[in-house]
Amino acid sequence: MQPDLADRQSARCGRKAWKIRLRFRARPLAVRTVLSRIRRQARNRLGPDCAARMELALAEVLNNVVEHGYCGRQTGPIDLTIKPVTGGILCRIVDAGWPMPDLRVPEGRLPDLDVAFQDLPEGGWGWALVRGTVSGLRYRRNRGRNVVVFRIPLTPA
């Protein structure tokens, strides 16, 4: 475990309810470690498809927090909660980074694909992937903290 990964986790095995709560520093290696841990735990509980969709959405959002939320600031904590809800998995991410532009989740429009391959942009794909993977995506700024909540459906949309 990473030294900067303070773990507050509770999970029950089998068919009983489980919940994951983690607090970690907004650093690329910490995000990678958290995603690896979640992947191992989720694959058996959710099946490979749902676990992969959850990992994709979490990777995009958490890496955005690291890259943009704490850009130009000293790194800070990220609180992540994952818990089952009816028909899916609820994910909640809280950080103290910069607020999202216009205090809302970016629209996530795909970049123009009608260009030569070498002219395709490197970035600009993340929020479109998130929006296409999750449901109920919400954002709010509360007491200087960003709160992003979304649901991973158990079956693809």
UniProtKB/TrEMBL annotation:
Keyword Kinase set for record: yes
GO molecular function, one term: protein serine/threonine kinase activity
Protein keywords: Kinase, Serine/threonine-protein kinase, Transferase
Parts of the chain that traverse the membrane: none
Protein name: Serine/threonine-protein kinase RsbW
Organism listed in the record: Albidovulum inexpectatum
Sequence ranges assigned to domain Histidine kinase/HSP90-like ATPase in this UniProt record: 24-151
Pfam name, any one: HATPase_c_2
